[in-house]
Design a protein that fits this description.
This protein is α/β, with parallel strands linked by helices. 42% of the residues lie in helices and 15% in strands.
Length: 658
Amino acid sequence: MQSLWNDKEAAEFSDELGLRVYTSRLLGREPRLVLHGGGNTSVKLRERSVLGDEEDILYVKGSGWDLETIDRAGFAPVRMAHLLALAKLPQLSDPQMVNELRTHMTKMSAPTPSVEAILHAILPHHYVDHTHADAVVTVTNTPNGEARVREIYGDSVVVVPYIMPGFDLARHCAEQFAREAGPQTIGMVLLNHGIFSFGASARESYERMIALVTKAEDYLKTHKAWDVVPTASPAGPTDAASLMIASLRGELSRAAGRPLILTQETSGKATGFCRRTDVAKISQQGPATPDHVIRTKPWPLVGRDVAAYSDRYRVYFDQHAPRARESKTMLDPAPRVILDAELGLLVAGNSAKDAHIVRDIYDHTIDIILRAEALGGYRPIAARDVFDMEYWDLEQAKLRKSGRPPMFLGEVALITGAASGIGKACVESLLARGAAVAALDVNPAIKSLHRRPDYCGTVCDVTDRKQLMNALQRTVSAFGGLDMLILNAGIFPGGKRIAELTDNEWQRVLDVNLNANLALLRAAHPLLRLAVHGARIVIMGSKNVPAPGPGAAAYSASKAALTQLGRVAALEWGADRIRVNTLHPDAVFDTGVWTEEVLAARAAHYGMNVAQYKTKNLLRTEVTSRDVAELAAELCGPLFSKTTGAQIPVDGGNDRVI
């Protein structure tokens, strides 16, 4: 651990809350301290109310905020007097506690305070930092973890036994801290959970955290329990592996009752862990810290027997649910982490973002397990405590209040010709509906079109069969399968009559507009057959199919052949639950096909200026890429679930088509 404090950066934050923001971000930058919303921080301030009274206010991290990106608005101001009074109650349910926190904030617009707000309040220090530092969690997840913690820290920390976060933990800490803390106390270790540091200034509290965690890291190094993670060379992607992953995703999704994204992690560390001879033992004992169970489930699946995992999960639920104080609704029994010697580490989530979070968590879990094993054995909290966290009242309440998910949440779409025009608009329409999107284009800009976990941009010449296969394999590795395919890539050469059309020009248009799509359909079919809700294919045809014009023989013929190919696919693949529909756009000018030169030439051909040419339809309206993309997205949705083999014009009305 190294302190990231920088005087120049800190000078940009002039007040105490600003410095609280700054050091919170420093903690959030280090994944060995906190991951994806984990940990919390606070500062105690004295403020004057609207009535003129001075009162002590705890500014504590709000629920849903991430320390790495938190701002002032991410801290919830709660009246200290009420928090300290709550800490003296003999009991308080967690829903009641959250109600008390929310009703005693000084800003209505603030987020819900962290459930550990009372714990922050009872610590008699200006600044308080709390992390789930890997090194500390590693030490505490061993058979004699408490003794090791005391060996490392002596009396500089208070050591608290594992108690589930919430009111009970806060009340216990208040009592124990009052008994054991002294002038030398600079932190508190919660066994199997994490570590607190505190101080009079933001810098002091932050750098005490760095120093405390460094001591745990040094201890692991001294006991030869640091550089223990093995690596292995992962197997390269293959068509067979892609089919195995897509099939596994189907089983996981059926177990979950909804589509899941499945992401493959083939790093040397992940592969080495999956191939350990003892992985079935060391991986099954529980999460590194109980907070992780909400993302990862209690244990990973070793191998691919999803049904056996689901049965085991139901037994786990039936064993622990009866002792709960209130009835529990069982969560889905599908695993979220899969360890497979052949496929490597795979992680599942409702969305690509969720799967990304699970991957990060388990990457750190591997380190913790192996270092704990080297230190004497990995021993996390008991299964009953894991269950209590997974089925926490507050988490169950979130389930009851969860709204309708996005249309394509958990589903995967692949779009060709996606760097501009209709293809780019299709990417945006499908992302907005919750899909994970793989986008292909020859333009290198496709790689950075979006920077988010649910987007994978690949430079691909669709006429190159090898590049197509690699793109499909990359899609499956990133998201687990394929549910929707939008065939959009195409070229429209400058107008040229048949008598002037060369063989090379003719063949080039057919290669891009027709042959490449045949190759992709053929290669994608095995994956589309495994789509969770049945696959959907949308083909971008053209108005030139029903109403061709002179000077566009190659384009018109290629799009007509592609349309016919789509009709045959609809006939052949209906039994595989694959729907194939075609859109026929016309006069969509914000696309890569319509260069200024081509547009001017076509307008001149019709004896019009460009403005007239753009709206030469019956409705006198301009058709945009977004118009086409929105209809393409809806064609993939439930409104068209009974439709296949259709051809729909998107042209503002064309008398020749009608």
